[in-house]
Amino acid sequence: MLSLFLRKSPSSSLLSRTCTTSPSLSPLSSPLFSRSFSSLLPPQRLPLPYRLSPLPIHGLATRYFHASSPLRNQQKENMEKLKKKFTKYLGQSGGPGDNGPNYKYMGIAAVAVAMAVLLYSVAMPDDRIDFQSFKTQILPSRMVDKIKVLGTDRVVVVMKPGFMPPRGLPTRPNNTYVFTIGDLAVFEKQLAEAQNDLGLDMFEHVPVVYDEGGNLTSSLLSVGPLLLTLAVGGYILYQVKNFGGAGAGGKGMGGLFNFGKTNARVQGLKITTKFSDVAGMDEAKQEIMEFVSFLKNPDKYKKLGAKIPKGALLVGPPGTGKTLIARATAGEAGVPFFSISGSDFIEMFAGVGPARVRDLFAQARTSAPCIIFIDEIDAVGRARSKSGYSNDERENTLNQLLVEMDGFSTGSGVVVLAGTNRPDVLDKALLRPGRFDRQIGIDKPDIKGRRDIFLVHLKVLKLKENIDDVAKRLSALTPGFSGADVANVCNEGALIAARRAKKLIEIVDLVDAIERVIAGLEKKNRILSPDEKKRVAYHEAGHAIAGWYLEHADPLLKVSIIPRGMGALGYAQYQPKDQYLYTVEQLKDRMCVTLGGRVAEQLIFGKISTGARDDLEKITQLAYSQITTYGMNARVGLLSFPQNDDEFGGTQPYSQATARMIDEEVRKMVAAAYDATVTLLTEKLPDIEKVAQRLLEKEVIAREDMRELLGPRPFPESTTFEQLTQDSRSPPPPPPPASPPSNPIPSPAV
What we know:
With 750 residues, this protein is α/β, with parallel strands linked by helices. The protein has 5 domains: 3-90, no CATH class; 122-222, name from scop, CATH 3.40.1690.20; 262-441, Rossmann fold (3-Layer(aba) Sandwich); 447-518, Helicase, Ruva Protein, domain 3 (Orthogonal Bundle), CATH 1.10.8.60; 530-643 and 653-720, CATH 1.20.58.760. The longest helix is centred in the last third of the chain and has 28 residues, at 656-683. The protein is elongated.
């Protein structure tokens, strides 16, 4: 290694010497160094009060001192660039920012070289002949220049210039032929006899040259497959080593032994999520706040003999915020947070899952008190099979998890939180007290919860209207939405406003975002024939009229005949309320509204189409649920059969006679709803005509258009946030009297 060192001249501090970038200096005679140095330093002669002397120093730690030159900073930068060039070229560590040689690309290069050698050996034409051909065709031509014996089994025949190979021999551009021999002494004897038979004098014999080391190229070609196998194997082993080290978070030994290391992400104390960032799940927060109190002040409970709960299972539909509330718990408690997915325990190698479970809890105990969060625990906690056909690796991982959570070596101070949306498939041993002491249900938020969630996501957006009014309006329009759906609506609204080149987001943009999430993207480019468009308009008008004149139908919000999504040619949007119980009358009205489109087609056109496929699926599911699940049929009785969700089918929990009876009752129920819908829409044919014509004219009509065409709906509606959030358990207050009574009755004292 070379480095530059400028030291002061001993003769005089004012002695000036000149330094150029000429490569004539002996230390700079390397072509690489000369090119790099000459391309970086300025070509002019620089007056330096120092003597330039090369010193061999370990590494490339270059020091450059200059007291008076105005180009000092530029020259230092140039020397740093030169240093980096040498470091990169030589593959050495150049400082804390350099990662050193890239073994990954070196491994790829080695594999490429080995493959090239192998391909060359395969693609190279075969110039081998046998000894008999050499004896009868080549040797009699007397054009053999010399014979090389490589090792003990390979002979190369070198021909003189101008040799013309006889018929049957390949033409070689280098005039060499190769053949193999079995024994060197036998070959020498046969060669001498062949030349004697040709009448050659001993002085005319072909000279033989012996090379005990053999030909390097030939040796490489012979071991090419082995080199390729070793190179590929080494590269794979190196990648496995890196994979293992990355999986363990970069700690400890790398290699195959790191497969048993957990790849849980340790958040430490950097979690900034608090309970104030979690909205719409007040009950879940109150229940999980006890874990925060346990972790912050465990002595308060230990004094009374209480034990810290081992864990809690967060159960709820997707997108309800299970992971978010787990992070908020760790953020409030201020303890380390280990986050891992259930599928991270499962590997293709036997024994890896249990080893990762052991390593995870070992790290957690050293960081206690702490929280372990296992997302989608059903991937590893599924109930163990009772038959002989099971996944032994997954079951072994589950067994190790059970032992770590509540076994002989159980430690304290480690709280395990897990999230799943399929608690029914979990093993019973995992759900018992002592492991997951509590199951915290996180359902979809109600209208008040949705308002709080909207307030969280809307505060980062630039709104034109008041944020409280927008949150109330949107929460009333999004029944059944989860927290993830609410976040998606807010983001889609911002994208729509940006697409429309607006500076502020308006309520109409967010309403359009709700339609985008519910029904899909508008397909305005889809061309419908006039007959199809007319049929779609009357179909949607049938839905709208049936819902307008049925008491238990949800309030109509909008009707559109613009195609949306994958296959919807039109849709009617309603505004349902958060309802958990339904009566027979309410379900019947829902069936009639769903059948309104098919009935309208039959009444107007006298023919039906395939446009009611989705409606018929909903009707079938609703009818079967009433009979087989809710016991709403007098003939079948008060029975509820479990729903079989197995995609491979299974045995039905009732006989064939009962199945036949259920099918008959379902047909009767659907037929009754169809007849009721026909009766209703036959009376309202003029109204269907009005709504259909308005749809053909405007393509989209709202609730105000329906009121303009049909008048007010004959039943009261609850559409605003205030109407939907009033307490239905207390009767509405009586209207105030017109005039106060002359002798009011005093209220009894309470």
